[in-house]
Sequence to fold (394 residues):
Amino acid sequence: MPTHRLILLVAAIVTSGAILASSMVTAPQVVSRTPQSETSAVEQDSTGKLADGTTVADQSDAAPLVIKEPNSTPVGMVWIFGGRSLMGSKDGKADEEPIHAVELDGYWMDSTEVTNAEFEKFVKATGYVTVAEKQPKREDFVGLVPDVSVIKDEDLVPSSICFNPNFDRATLRKDYPNWPYQVWMLKHGASWRHPNGPDSSIENMPDHPVVHVAWTDAVAYCEWAGKRLPTEAEWEYASRGSLAQQDYPWGNRLQKNGNWLLNVWQGKFPEAHEVSDGFEFTAPVKSYSPNPFGLYDMAGNVWEWCADWYQPTYYSESPRRNPVGPEDSFDPNEPGLPKRVQRGGSFMCSPDYCLGYRCATRMKGEPTSGTFHCGFRCVLSPADYAAFAKKAER
Ligand SMILES: [Ca+2]
Fold:
């Protein structure tokens, strides 16, 4: 995912017709349903045998999983019953392996991505200003780019990342690991209020997912709402909707009767955007059918921030019960830049680009960079319910 900080550098050093600076390009990454029984775990057959060959009875190393919904369902959320599921895939990049079993206690999850209307309510209540709306300082980039002096003064203005439809087609090099920097641009004045730049508005888009929110902005919203960001394991578990090892949140097909089941990119990326699903950018939430858990847009529409730091090898060491991610991050494509996990893909995803809409696909973003195709949704643990309910009375 392009980052605000690096795109500033690219803007400074890329001359017309040139490709990315070699100093930035490192080694390519090798890297509705209610449970049939509220006592049954995900992906187990009628005998209790799980997909990884173990049984429910093996879950004896800790307190019983929280499976049954302990309180009334908060408005706009759905209960994700606890259980066991296989996480990861052998069909994607190396960071999706190894496939491993995780056990999660139940939680509530927003049924949709946080919308512009919801985010506006937060901003009006708190006066919060997002990263994209603030004036960046040159010193903000010390340690993150080799030489902050190359950043142009005119780029040190409130801005965020958008697609550049006028990218230089003659010099596009998809064999470079960071080639997306060639088709993304820092747009001055772009923010959650102006998703496609200062001339755009969300006036008629209250039910679209909010975008141009950095991870830090999403966390601030969650704290205000009395909720939190999902862990990466919670996100994938919820995405799978209790369906074992399917490609997408509802099964293995992207279309039904010729109709698209999600908002993604049709056509060759980034040259041709056919928009045959009807949405060039974001779609209103609930434009497509939910997954078996009752969650909308768990594939496509906008990427969603997760709580975890990103590391490509984390699955080799992930604890089984309620994993929360590594203690710090590492992205081999951009070493030195901290990255948080993003999931679910967006309207910019296509089969020849990122396949981000697969349940198992992992993405990462620098926590203070928002983009025009990334938003978030929240979760709530039973342990936090009382505090949430108190806040909800506001
Ligand atoms: Ca679309």
